[in-house]
Amino acid sequence: MTQHLTLQPSALAEYQAWLGTIKQRIVSVRLRMALAASRELILFYWDLGAMISQKQAQSQWGDKLIAQLSADLHKAFPDIKGLSASNLKYCLRFFQFYSADAPIGQQSVDQLPWGHNIQIFTKCGSVAEAHFYIEQTLEQSWSRDVLALQLKSNLYARAGKAVTNFSRTLPLPQSDLAQQTLKDPYTFDFMAMTAPYNELDVERQLTQHITQFLLELGKGFAFIGRQYHLEMAGNDYYIDLLFYHVTLKCYVVVELKNRKFIPEYAGKLNFYLSAVDSLLKREDDQPTIGLLLCRDKNNIEVEFALRDMNKPMGVSEYTLVETLPDNLKGALPTVEEIENDLQQLQEVEDGNSNGGSQ
């Protein structure tokens, strides 16, 4: 049930005048809204949020204001969507979230649909984080569902965080672009692995879920092959995963290790990068980049291992969803059984303590 304001005549007149201003604003943009002009709609929601914020600051009406405003606007404009109390609250949050930053006209929020904007300003902790997701959405053309996945996986905290030697092995601006391309950790939560498993099992799952894998890697990665064969000096070698990055204009060698990083892994990856540069790289390609994915790492140890490597490479962790084999699931105690065991153990200890004190 809608709560209505109880106002003195003077306050009611003030409210009616203010309501009339908003009605005029709606009428002025109605045509553009009907044509689904996303930018004008976002700007309107910004203005509406600003007007609500200002009115709340000037009065004691609180949340009742939004309910009353929604009811009155629906009555005046029954055919216009976006005037529900919940959406008016989003308008208010939208304005409050960005109001301390640059003016709305200087931001790129008006280039995204309203649904995308709601995802961003309700899930981000800062304007800087929000701008990151806005830029990524525009650059990579994320749908709302993909944006939701990237927010859930906290891409902002992971992007560009891999330990690399790019600043020493690649020229600017290639080194900066390559650094931002890699993440740490990579989240492969679209895979459910049953222990025990090895690197080949992980590779197989990644290539079976190549669409989700490429989404996690980011824009620009083109999949070349798994266990990619190279022949050198009569010997056969196999790269775990080989990609070509269309923006960086280079091959990317990905090596998977189902264990903690050790320095020897960097040496093997350096060897593979030299091989790809010699056998596959064209004259107009940039130097091949390596990405070593491990289950765990010590960043200081990785930095030392990469210090004298002459090929550009980075090291990141990756996480999976691990499941138990079916034949073990029933053999494990439930939470209730563990709690009962702990309670019985406590009772025994209490009994021994009391017996000892007599």
Overview of the molecule:
With 358 residues, the protein is α/β, with parallel strands linked by helices. It folds into two domains: 9-153, no CATH class; 157-325, Trna Endonuclease, Chain: A, domain 1, CATH 3.40.1350. The protein is built from 16 helices and seven strands. Strands 1, 2, 3, 4, 5, 6 and 7 form a seven-stranded mixed sheet that branches. It is elongated and about 95 Å long. The mean pLDDT is 84.
Explain briefly what this protein structure is:
This protein has 358 residues and is of the alpha/beta class. The protein has helices spanning 9-34, 38-58, 64-76, 85-98, 114-123, 127-140, 144-152, 155-158, 166-169, 174-181, 199-208, 210-217, 263-279, 299-307, 326-329, 335-357; strands at 163-164, 186-194, 221-232, 235-245, 250-260, 289-296, 313-323.
